[in-house]
């Protein structure tokens, strides 16, 4: 059995379990249990079990998004989720990927249901190493069509990034418009996969054909170079978008007096004993914002753990430094681009004769 698979299970399951336990014990939980379904106009389907679940999810999202600090965290979390979703789609589309690793819609919906932080530690990283094993030096295993990589970028932008922006910007706080936008966003991962699956052939038709005069070895090297460039483009585009968002948020947080360590420590610790006799709404804002903050940090830590397993301390350093200067999502995307220069390195490619 692969060592990295065993290590990812031993490390991932306890972290995921503790993370989920934290979410389940947040102070807002008992209030939602008592008030749902129907709290703040969330009785959308008329089916009690579904409305009960939607009520809890929507109220966590609305309270986080409509809180000044929670809103900033929401943008960072969804930016990171976009980077992670692109990685899942890319790694699930390579030659060696199995059907489960390639089921991006399933992974995305599971992340929405169980949180992306718990999922990446408990399931995705172990599944990745169950599929690929310890050795990431065999270039043919990491082959992916350039057209598929381009299609994934378009799919993530159209199917996830734009819906996320609509959700964060749509409607007045706690309005019906905002409620509907949050509800529809929960199904965004179901849209991403069909977009890139059906558009891959379109982008393949747009590629320049390989020149017949080039020998077989040169053709293979050019193919790998094109694939590497296409995947790097996916990650770099998302990295730049995350970086722009990151600096806008830093400016906004600074203007609101939120850009200090104490603010985030207080939120992380749920303000300990600093606040007493809070209303349901105050409890909701703090709990929901803490939920998103913990999800953000643990998801980023999961990506950092993967980078350490994949590329050692040099990969971890790229991710950490990148995150400092471009935000958590930007750092993860920059690492993914950096990693691609190894897994599809033309200098290491050995081409067998036809």
TrEMBL record:
Keywords recorded for this protein, A-Z: Membrane, Signal, Transmembrane, Transmembrane helix
Signal peptide (from-to): 1-21
Membrane spanning stretches: 72-90, 102-129, 149-170, 182-199, 233-251, 284-309, 315-338
Organism superkingdom: Eukaryota
Protein name: Uncharacterized protein
